[in-house]
Amino acid sequence: DWSSDVCSSDLYGFTVPTYYAISRVKVSVWRYETNPRYPGTSVKDLQIQLVVAGVASGTNKAATSVTWDNTVTRYDYDYDLTLAGWNLVLTPDAVNAATFGVDVSCQGAGPQIPYPFVGLPAPIGYIDYVAITVEAVPGWYQSFMVIPPYAIKPE
User: Is 36 helix (H, G, I), strand (E, B) or coil?
Assistant: First the structure.
């Protein structure tokens, strides 16, 4: 098994009015893996975590049991009715800061590759886009997308 580097995205440019209350945050990641070279190997989430003031914060929402597809697929993280799922309280100032974002990383899983297949490359996870949607009371929302393009490879 292996884990990847962290793909950090920030500089989203939110402009939440300071008198609004943040009510929801959704993270969407468009990701895929290369075709596994050996049966049973796969790529899965390791970390999907909001970054507040430049520091990974709150609950890691990684879907560690979901295998990434080998075609670009959007996966949404925690769009519930409150911020409770992220285990955070966010202010407009925190969300508007250039240091607000999300960290994404993945892990490879699978059997040890036997001879004569030793040396085949492990599957690689790729991120095409990362988007954050922020909703605030009363009835306001804003969504921004960044385009990494980023390959998160085994270390």
Answer: coil
Indicate the SS3 state at residue 92: helix
pLDDT beyond 70 at 25 = yes
pLDDT of residue 112: 58
Place of tokens 């929801």: 24
**138 preceded by cis ω (within 30°)?**
yes
- Sign of the torsion angle spanned by Cα atoms 81, 84, 90, 95: negative
ω into 121 cis (within 30 of 0): no
- Radius of gyration, alpha carbons of the chain: 17
What are the tokens at 111? Answer: 């059997």
69-123 residue pLDDT tens: 888 999 999 766 556 788 888 999 999 999 999 999 888 876 656 556 666 666 7
| 3-class DSSP assignment, residue 138 | coil
pTM across the whole model: 0.83
Calpha distance 125→103 (Å, rounded): 14
Give how far Cα 149 sits from Cα of 31, 54, 125, Å: 10, 20, 11
